[in-house]
Write a structure and sequence with these properties.
9 strands, alpha/beta, 14% strand, globular, 368 residues, 3 domains, nine-stranded mixed β-sheet, Rossmann fold
């Protein structure tokens, strides 16, 4: 047996032993040790853990932050974190910050998955930052088709049914080539555990590099040792996701469902207390976003194709809360920046209307 095969067999044997350990804390400790052992045996150093590896002099921290503030003040960079492509979100948060846990929620069918895969598109296609996308709700093929429809601006229904003209085929081919060259990694392992997410993310950080983690969604994940206590299991998952963000110094986005009571309500905006299964989500999250749209709550309202969607920042540990609007192109599974009439254009239009009214009034007086 070759050294590589022997190494893989040892890793599998160790994993089987760890899974048979009854005590959750001991199992987590062994899992972390196993992850570090994999890095060492593969010839890569473990990713630096700023929490545990060493102390950092306040002088170094001060210099780093002063450089960042100087860049912002001189206009070199208004975004300190990972840009999302949504202008108002980036303005209010300065981008997705390293070590932050960002929770995104909303009513069923509101477009939570579309929102996060749009962020992953921008991050990987425009800024070329590697993204690990853990998709527990859609298979990798389903998610790819959604991303393809969004990027090519081709109706997802037409793609699935195969009703495509020549122009659509050209757009799909161009978009597919662009997506294929992006550093997006999709993992669709069903019922994945939080420890598998941690191990995969650490390995990616050491090997390919990693700038953003997306988990869709928290409620479909598992944490070993908490089978009969769902609230404690979700608490363990959110604690671990937050710890992973701090360990790898990258932002982590996690989709969370709302509880059934909130989903059946008629209110337009959910509350933080409506997050499903555990109060730990609101405690661990640095940022909580809600996606809101009138069509979902008010069935009798006629909404145009460009559905106006409100994004509510309900919690922001290091910045302002508030809301902004996006346009949702449902058939493309795509959110876009909502560009209402600017102040200058609005003022010019208002002045033009007043001039026209004055001219009509003058003509009326001269006639009679």
């Amino acid at each position: 047996m070759s050294n590589q095969n022997q190494q893989m067999q040892n890793i599998l044997n160790l994993r089987e032993i760890i899974q048979n350990v009854k005590f959750p804390k001991m199992r987590r400790f062994l899992e972390q040790a196993r992850s570090k052992n994999i890095y060492t045996e593969s010839g890569n150093d473990c990713p630096e853990n700023p929490e545990r590896s060493s102390f950092c002099p306040i002088k170094d921290i001060a210099e780093e932050n002063l450089r960042m503030l100087k860049d912002i003040n001189t206009g070199k960079s208004l975004i300190r974190g990972v840009a999302t492509g949504f202008e108002e979100l980036d303005r209010m948060t300065s981008g997705l910050q390293n070590s932050d846990l960002i929770v995104i929620s909303g009513y069923t069918g509101i477009g939570k998955t579309a929102f996060v895969h749009n962020i992953s598109q921008y991050v990987t296609l425009e800024t070329k930052i590697p993204v690990a996308y853990f998709s527990l709700e859609l298979s990798k093929n389903q998610l790819f088709l959604r991303i393809l429809a969004s990027e090519a601006r081709v109706d997802l229904g037409r793609i699935c049914k195969g009703f495509l003209g020549k122009d659509n085929w050209i757009r799909l081919k161009t978009a597919s080539e662009k997506i294929s060259s992006s550093p997006l990694y999709i993992f669709d392992t069903p019922a994945i555990t939080i420890h598998e997410v941690q191990t995969t993310a650490r390995r990616m950080k050491a090997n390919e590099g990693l700038g953003l983690i997306i988990v869709d969604n928290i409620q479909l994940m598992q944490a070993e040792g908490f089978r009969n206590t769902r609230d404690r299991e979700i608490s363990e998952i959110t604690h671990s996701l937050k710890a992973l963000a701090m360990e790898l110094q990258i932002p982590v986005i996690a989709i969370s469902q709302l509880n059934r009571r909130a989903d059946n309500s008629q209110t337009l905006h959910p509350n933080i207390t409506d997050l499903r299964d555990s109060g730990a989500i609101e405690q661990d999250a640095n940022v909580i976003l809600f996606i809101c749209r009138d069509k979902i709550r008010k069935k009798n309202i006629d909404i145009p194709e460009e559905k106006i969607t409100e994004i509510v920042i309900a919690k922001h540990s290091n910045g302002p809360t508030g809301s902004f609007k996006l346009a949702f192109l449902e058939r493309f599974t795509r959110f876009e920046n909502f560009a209402p009439m600017g102040r200058e254009v609005e003022e010019a239009a208002k002045n033009k209307i007043e001039e026209n009214l004055a001219a009509i009034e003058a003509a009326f007086k001269s006639e009679f």
